[in-house]
Design brief:
This protein is α+β, with helices and mostly antiparallel strands. The chain has helices at residues 18-29, 95-104, 173-182, and strands at 8-14, 34-39, 44-52, 55-62, 84-90, 112-118, 124-130, 143-146, 163-170, 188-191, 195-202, 205-209. The longest helix is centred in the first third of the chain and has 12 residues, at 18-29. The protein is globular and about 40 Å long. The mean pLDDT is 91.
Length: 210
Amino acid sequence: MNAIPPLLDHLVLATPDLASTVAEFAGRTGVTPVVGGAHPDLGTRNYLVSLGGSSYLEIIGPDPERSLPEGAHSFGVDGLTEARTVTWAISPPDLDAAVAAARAQGYDPGTPHPMNRRRPDGTLLEWRLTDSDTAHPSGLVPFLIDWGTSPHPTTSGLPTTPLVEVTATAPAPDEIRTLLTALNTGLHLTEGPVGFSFTVETPKGFVTFC
């Protein structure tokens, strides 16, 4: 099993307090995440760190400059009491073909739909991703993303903490593995409560986040 999942685009570390989590990451690693941008329709904002290559970490939480009704934010940040790795994304070579292939194997990752945000420098990023009620509720099965003609977030000079390993636990690992196979990816899974962890190499040594 690969220590890093094939096709990994990014990991999602969601938090109810964005400023606090960014400060904690910087304190533990010696690397300060940079502002990614805001998602106006979702009331969230993110900070980013490169994980090496074309993968990155997204730290996402409520946007303090935008108030939305409870439950309107993405990635369940309204229901969190502390920062937690909630899901991940893969970027297949052909998004629509990957969705069709997964459906043919009995798993529907959802219909791709467009999203966008502006970087602090004003660059508009536009992408498509799968995100629907058909996705596996554990978050251990990735959503799919296609950046199209937009520059990938890792091309904007992000600070880097190279990714060493991603692991997860699930009550029924074989069920998750079947769905991962349908998406042509993998994840190191062991039996236990639903949860993620990832380890990065930093100026302060190897650091693991859950």
